[in-house]
Amino acid sequence: MNELRRKVLLLAVLSGFILVALIGVTGVQLKKAIGEQHQKLASVKSNNSIMYQP
After folding, report:
1. What is the pTM of this model?
2. Of the chain's two ends, which shows fewer C-beta atoms within 10 Å, N or C?
């Protein structure tokens, strides 16, 4: 009984670590994607302001 409980606890801890790692990686990728999108928007805005100067 004690052995089974230890295995279940170990499995729970490992799956928790994996979940945290996955969330961290996804967060970093999301941040990078948002940053790239922001740069694209900024470059489009600067191009427009250069083109539409009177």
Report:
1. 0.54
2. C
